[in-house]
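Researcher: Last one for today. Full complex below.
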Amino acid sequence: MSQSYDRGTVESFGRWLEFKPGMWAWILHKLTGWILVGYLFTHIAVLSTATGVDPAAAAAGNDIYTTTLQSLEELLIVRFLEIGLLTVAVFHILNGIRLLFVDLGLGLDRQDVSFYVSLIMTALITLASLPTFLGGVL
Amino acid sequence: MSTEIQQETETTEEQSPEQIREEVAEDLSEKRREQIQEDLESAEKTVQLKVFRYDPEIEGKEEPRFDSFTVPFHRGMTVLDALIYARDRYDSSLTFRHSCRQAVCGSDALFINGQQRLGCKTQMGDLEHPVRIEPLPHQDVVKDLVVDMQHFYDQMHAVEPYFDPDELPDGELEEQHQTPENREKVKLSTRCIWCGACMSSCNIAAGDNEYLGPAAINKAYRFAMDEREGSDRKQERLRIIEQEHGVWRCQTQFSCTEVCPKDIPLTEHIQALKRESIKNNLKFW
Amino acid sequence: MYKHDVIVVGAGGAGLRAAIAAHEEGADVALVSKLHPVRSHTGAAEGGINAALHPEDSWELHAYDTMKGSDYLGDAPAIDTFAKQAPDEVIQLEHWGMPFSREEDGTVSQRPFGGLSHPRTTYAGAETGHHLLHTMYEQVVKRGIEVYDEWYVSRLAVTDHDRPEDRECYGAVGYDIKTGEIDGFYARDGVILATGGNGQAFDHTTNAIANTGDGQALAYRAGAPLEDMEFVQFHPTTLPSTGVLISEGVRGEGGILYNDEEERFMFEYGYANNEGELASRDVVSRAELTEVNEGRGIEDEYVHLDMRHLGEERILDRLENILHLAEDFEGTDGLDEPMPVKPGQHYQMGGIEVNENGQTCIDGLYAAGECACVSMHGSNRLGGNALPELLVFGSRAGQHAAGGDLTDPEIPTGPSAESEDGEVDTPVEPGSVGDRSDPVVADGGAVATPEELLEEAIRKERERVDTMLERDGVNHAEVREKVQKTMTENVNVFREESNIKQALKDIREAREQYQHVGVADKSRTYNTDLIHTIETRNVIDNAEAIALGALAREEFRGAHWRKEYQERRDDEWLKHTMLSWNGGTPNLYYKPVILEGHEQTYEPKERSY
Amino acid sequence: MAEHYSSFEHKGWRWFVQRITAVFLVGVLAFHFITLHFVNHAAEISFAGTEARMGQIGYFSLMVTFLITGAFHGVNGVYNGLVNMGLKGTQKKIVAAILTIATLLLIAQGLRVAVAMSGMF
Ligand SMILES: Cc1cc2nc3c(=O)[nH]c(=O)nc-3n(C[C@H](O)[C@H](O)[C@H](O)COP(=O)(O)OP(=O)(O)OC[C@H]3O[C@@H](n4cnc5c(N)ncnc54)[C@H](O)[C@@H]3O)c2cc1C
Ligand code: HEM
Ligand code: SF4
Ligand code: F3S
Ligand code: FES
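Model: Here's the assembly. Have a good evening.
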């Protein structure tokens, strides 16, 4: 008799519009965090080429480490990925700072504003760094 | 007791009770239709409700659906008023909890236009129309707008939500002292009316069924921060909220704080408890 | 069938207190409530709890104020017991963690309240009832007391001896709202009714929608008399559109009432030259309506309550929730403008006749809280006296039911306490329509054991619910509205014979319609349609009792004002109006007021403020 | 009641260390980005340049700490995230084990790389 209907969580996760700033901040922080971890692993993998460097080649400037890095840097796509990484890192840092303040119990009633500020600053920093990042390939 | 006029219900021909009942009912429902018509015409404005319906026992309602009701609007009308109108005039099987009409009983937390709110505390005039009314998300729906609150109650009970001081004054007529500052500190947390809105809005609670949830943690805060209880009890309280599904689960999403109809700064209280337990643990490290 | 020693019906302040007391007495207690305990209307109380705590104050003074407030219709033994025990109860609450407002030195604050000679109202902000309710529910959780929430009690299992005094109560029948299951609660030692007020008999009320007077109706139909039902308190400061209450605390803190001409009318027109806004509720309510009737009301409906001069800090500190209420339910900012207020039904002074130990005349049946009438409020309740009543008499009822040791009661109960037969000319016959052998009382003296009696009651209830669910008919809302309208129009603050008679006629009509009521919702799951239908019957019984009492009492006393009789008539009316169901043909009689207390005898004096 | 939750492990420390590492990372990560993208453009990185920087003991130890805190912070974050999403029981244990091993491997490899870069040993 006492049956009940479970609307589940999927439905509400589908309702993005109903999400609030705090929830978006959480999702974005998670996402950026995961990307950063992913990058950390890749990064070390790429840098691992350094272990195979022999001193002679290094002196000539054509060791595997240098060539790998430089050939990667020549690819436009890598430059864009780097910009992406910067964006991700900047947002994670800024929102991370916001979260640290939240943890200290500071400015809780402005948490939505500080989230928007993190977003805007991320955008600005990304834009500002475009020339540096794209320098040499375009 | 004497009676002035003996009023006998005189019926010329014998009618069966069923016949009488049908006639009376017919009569009244005719009046009711007219009344609705009149209400709608005389109102300056009408509003549309789209209400979630579900009843496992009734044919056609076992599959959830939305019903629409047109309700005459008047200034100051709350969502609860509108629902009551819809129920009393259109469909008496429309089911929702309500009692106090003044935001103290916590019965009517609903999902109104995509946000958890108390029906009685939400002005129809402040909402976009049509107004969509659903039961609280993340809780099983029993019928229409009624959800199963048991799990919420269990979580509340799990934090040992009762005052339990280390010691009491000896004198029979002697009260415990509490500074006004300390009272101020716990004041907001004591306002909770157990409506469940916060729990329903929290993503973490949705994902982890055992998460204590903002209301229960706030309850723990209410006691842990009350200086009258004493430090031994506080230790125990911190242990409770520090458990696996306790405060650390909170990801400071703030949804709870945003929806709480009693304006309790839930996230702030949860964070304060996190710091409190860290401080407490550092002492032993 | 669920078996316990003590069954407490209703989990508001009175029910919770009774359950705790019975539990402490060692009984196995269960709370059965149609709402989850924290949803009870006790949570709406704002102002405070009176108790003589200060050394300069004394219980005798509190008792004296209460008696004066009651307009000498309270029974002295009840009032004395109350005033003596209230301080213990308040301290007890404090020990249970109640977050009372505090003084700088950390002690519990007390503020002045209407009708009190000393500031003795303890409070917790403007949400005293909320805190009281939650604090006590928490103690219930602590003790692990069984709670059957969302169980609606619709019938008592009472034997059907001729004289109510010979009857015994063995339990109650409940309807599990969530599943539709009907089952019995067997009470080895007693059933305590603590079902709260009956404000739903009126359409402008501060009461919750669930306050339908179920307990009063259940006890009444089972044979326990109703006492002083005509005394209904109308609160002078409710918001005009919803009936939401603006606490007396506002006036206690210094809030002022103004009419349309911005006159402080309480003084200006001499309604209460000494106390002004702090005069007793009935006085202020009538003053407001008189202002409105004489054309000095605002929009011909209400007056203004102004607290702006108290200053933002004080308001935020002590009356913060008033700001929210005025904003959310009336759209008024109390810091910025005066709040519109008008009188609304607020409290039922009368109720199920009980003695100081909460016993009705039926053995094993108790009542406490607003549904009961020990008669401590008499014809008018003082603000802040109901919450301590819940505590004192709730605890006494619980204790007594669980076999605790209490002094013998001095207040007699049951129709045999009659001093005088009542005479009243009713335009129509009151009481049940058709079915005279009311189903509340089990039939057949032949019923062997208490359990069989309860079984029989369960069977009957199942039958009744089945028929209601099966048939189609009149919708309860129609009937309820009719009753509420006529009560608000005719048995309000100002009462007149012809109006009361009109109300009785309308109520009769409602009863007849109720005979044809049907439940449209056929589901067994959370069927509120059914519950409201059952409640409507109780609303009718309550309304009728109020109207009958109002018609019978030919004087002006306390909250009961009669156009034809503008005076308190002590020589004739120092007596309680009693109404017993009498198998469906209500019997009106009177019972003398007891003015002789434990330590002092009260002399009726003029009640002026 | 409360016993209904069996686990009373002090979970606070992981939360706490996550914050502490975060505070540290704010500075270092920003520094890292600035040195390797703005001061020294990424495209111009060469082994020689790297070696020059890593040869300094201060920079070297900063980078090693960066690696360890970053790895801890990242993986701990991922683990917390998974647990919050409802990971429990054996699955949780397996994931914890895999993540720990991965982190240890990452740190080990990172150290090897760092040593190679520094040319100090
Ligand atoms: C707005 C407002 C403000 C007030 N302010 C003050 C104040 O400041 N000071 C003061 O002293 N007094 C105040 N009062 C009065 C006081 O609050 C009430 O008289 C008191 O709370 C009633 O408590 P109770 O326990 O009798 O009933 P309630 O709290 O109403 O509880 C009734 C209980 O019975 C249950 N119940 C009812 N019917 C059934 C049934 N058929 N089956 C099962 N369960 C049932 C309900 O679920 C509920 O749990 C105020 C009242 C109101 C309305
Ligand atoms: C630079 C400064 C950084 C700051 C201030 C910072 C801050 C934070 C904070 C406060 C959290 C906790 C969020 C929470 O539990 O609510 C977090 C989570 C996380 N961080 Fe960082 N972080 C930084 C750098 C990094 C780096 C370099 C990485 C990757 C290696 C990283 C990966 C993560 C991950 C994966 C999470 C978990 C996300 C989740 O909840 O699933 N962070 N960060
Ligand atoms: S904390 Fe707020 S939202 Fe949550 S249950 Fe309590 S009152 Fe409702
Ligand atoms: S929404 Fe949930 S995550 Fe924390 S801040 Fe509130 S409990
Ligand atoms: S009806 Fe009580 S909170 Fe809305």
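Chain A touches chain B at residues 1-7, 9, 11-12, 15, 17-18, 20-23, 25-26, 99, 102-105, 108-109, 111-112 (CB under 8 Å). The mean pLDDT of chain A is 84.
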